[in-house]
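Problem 12. The chain below contains 435 residues. Write out its predicted structure in token notation.
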Amino acid sequence: MATTGRTAADIAASVERDLHARELGPGDALPPVRTLAAELGVNANTVAAAYRTLRERGIVETHGRAGTRIRARPATIRRNDLGPAMPPGTRDLSTGEPDPDLLPSPAFPNPAEWRTLYQHGALYEPFADAARTVLRAGGVDTAHLAATSGALDGLERALVAHLRPGDLVAVEDPTWANLLDLLAALNLTPRPIPVDDEGPDPAATEAALRAGARAFVVTTRAQNPTGASVSAERAAALRPILAAHPHVVLLEDDHGNDISGLDLHTLTGVTTHWAHIRSAAKAYGPDLRCAVVTGDAVTIDRIGGRQRLGPGWVSHILQFAVAHAWTDPDVAECIHVARETYRLRRTRLIKALRARGVAATGRTGINVWVPAPDETTAVASLLARGWAVAPGARYRIGSPPGLRITVATLTAEETERLADAVAAAMRVGAARQTR
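Solution.
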């Protein structure tokens, strides 16, 4: 690290450059304020201002005597950029991507018939009608709707509509890596909630809300990375907890929806402000950057108002494609095939791992979560054997180590070889733990 600069802005920019160049990494300590000020020949207040800027950008965090350190998940780089280099020929099961062969072909309107002008409304009415149909089937109120550019865009707009930097947000642990990136970028503080196959732990959820969490983000189905899905029993346990804290903003992410294979058990309607987000990318195609957000009147009004000052609206052409996907019988058959194929690939790997004494979970979705005694060793061991998997550190806050394996394209023949490699990697990790 060779931090330079004479102003707070230049010093902060220098630290960011070192981070992007990998001369600094997650957890690395920055020099004490007075030490760096002396090295640069500037006032200590200048360095303190630079560090404050870096904190506000979600790049560093300060812990008293422990000093200022690069965050475990700095907002300026994605956690996916933190993994090891991948040798040529490696089978990549770390991506979280769906199987392209199982995605339906999107339909688009005839360009000659498509004439959307600036004065048109943000919502394409057939999209709104299709959204009402699929959401009401899951018991979600559809009185107020908005369209956003995918799930993460919807989550960001809902968070910004109600929260301020520094606010506490209850999240599942482990959880979606991009959500942790987003919270860091917004300078929001995650409060981890353990999650099992049926969803967030009720006791931990109540403790987080009592501790002052301003928002609670929960994945309804196909939770990434564990595959959890909120069950009817878990939803029944969580609703009264949320009802006792009506000021908490409830945000539901239903990105897995039609490929999950399980019914939706919504938690919405028991807090004053809430949003339920159903996106299309995972089931219908990652380039369909479109989601419907339904919620209370204030939340949806704030999302729409801020959107009008930026992109204005989500392309009606994308809304047309998603509305078609949600209503066409042929597409529904494609989704049925995808859902069953993903179920087979998940259960096949879980069964093969368990036969070798390796625990694994994956109730829904396209990923399998494998607890690991030493995830760094396990990832390296698998990489040496030609398999790339995602280290659990990308998704964890305080939960035990693990690996995320994307099974979307995993064949039957590959499953047995992969299970052998995972079992061997676990043995290596366990041996190192006992040294």
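Discussion. DSSP finds 14 helices and 15 strands in the chain. Students who got a different answer should revisit the alignment rule from Section 12.3.
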